Amino acid sequence: MVRARACTAEALLAAIEAGEFYASSGVVLDDVAFDGRTLTLEIAAQGDATYVTEFIGTRKDGDVGEVLARVEGLRPSYTARGDELFFRATVTSSLPADNPVWDGQPRQAWAQPVTPAR
Fold it and tell me: Cβ(39)–Cβ(33) under 8 Å?
């Protein structure tokens, strides 16, 4: 999914180069915002589905890919504590993927990694 100003090759490429995109297997994000410290998502509700967002990242002297926070709901956010090198959000829906790659695959979305301001 790409957030572009227009549906033209130029606008799409500019948006991708600016990092204005996310990957999805069925979860739709109405908005992804990062202010330098806090990453906030707005998830588009799909029927009676429930959503869990894991904010995954790496801290200085920490494990790679640590789950920093787990948030339920349609507007999850995570504010950096200050020791994160980077983090990203992975949203998992209670709905199954339309075209699953493996049995039981849920609908998901993955936001781009962000680097907190120092």
Answer: yes
Question: What's the one-letter identity of residue 54?
Answer: E
- Is the distance from CB of 54 to CB of 67 less than 8 angstroms? yes
Instruction: Record the pTM.
Output: 0.92
Phi, psi of 93 (to 5 degrees): -95, 160
CA distance 64 to 43: 26
CATH 2.60.40 is right for the domain spanning 23-110: yes
CA distance 64 to 85: 10
pLDDT at residue 8, as a whole number:
95
Domain regions of the chain by residue span: 23-110
